[in-house]
UniProtKB/TrEMBL annotation:
Signal peptide residue numbers: none
MF GO annotations: actin filament binding
Organism: Medioppia subpectinata
Alphabetized InterPro entries for the sequence: Calponin-like, Calponin_repeat, CH_dom, CH_dom_sf, SM22_calponin
Annotated protein name in UniProt: Transgelin
Length: 188
């Protein structure tokens, strides 16, 4: 989509180029292959900047992705190609991703995808969703998330642990503060 925004200049241009430098085409390819396998649809998995954007920009693929992970997460997907309807689809995806457990820090802003402002944050969000997908019984991407390992100790074990002085407390090896002259002037 051609943006109607003015070209960035100065510090804004530097900041935007730094953000764009974080975009990883290989990660995009991996994400698109995962989406293709999960939706069982023929989508372009090239992963180049424009391909990634063109595949996801209207939000319909994203909404179908969330529904493939957990049915009826997104109730309505707009088929219209009008800008506000596409942005609404992206917002529906973001709400669905948050319901599936993606932390708010890993979500992107609608404008990041719609106007290609920050495709790296879109990658982060989809990668996080891929990790959360395995908790919903769907093949995900990325490393498997850890699960809680709660340990219960008896009162006797807790008391026994209080009497132990571990090596982590350290030792001063006989050091003291003699020879430190606070407030004295240096004698020459």
């Amino acid at each position: 989509m051609a943006s109607n925004r003015a070209e960035k200049a100065g510090f804004a241009a530097e900041a935007h180029s730094k953000i764009n430098s974080k975009y990883d085409p290989q990660l995009s390819h991996q994400i698109l292959v995962w989406i293709k396998d999960l939706l069982n649809e023929d989508i372009d998995t090239n992963g180049e900047n424009n391909s990634f954007y063109e595949t996801l920009k209207d939000g319909t693929v994203l909404c179908r992705l969330v529904n493939a992970i957990q049915a009826n997460t997104v109730k309505k997907v707009n088929a219209s190609k009008m800008a506000f309807k596409c942005m609404e689809n992206i917002q529906f995806f973001l709400e669905g991703a948050q319901k599936l457990g993606v932390p708010s820090e890993e979500l992107f802003q609608t404008i990041d995808l719609w106007e290609q402002q920050n495709l790296h944050s879109v990658q982060i969000c989809l990668q996080s969703l891929g990790r959360k997908a395995s908790k919903h019984g769907v093949h995900g991407i990325g490393p498997k998330e850890s699960e809680a390992n709660v340990r219960e100790f008896s009162e006797e074990q807790m008391k026994a642990g209080q009497g132990v002085i571990g090596l982590q407390y350290g030792s001063n090896k006989g050091a003291n503060q003699s020879g430190i002259n606070f407030g004295n002037t240096r004698h020459m």
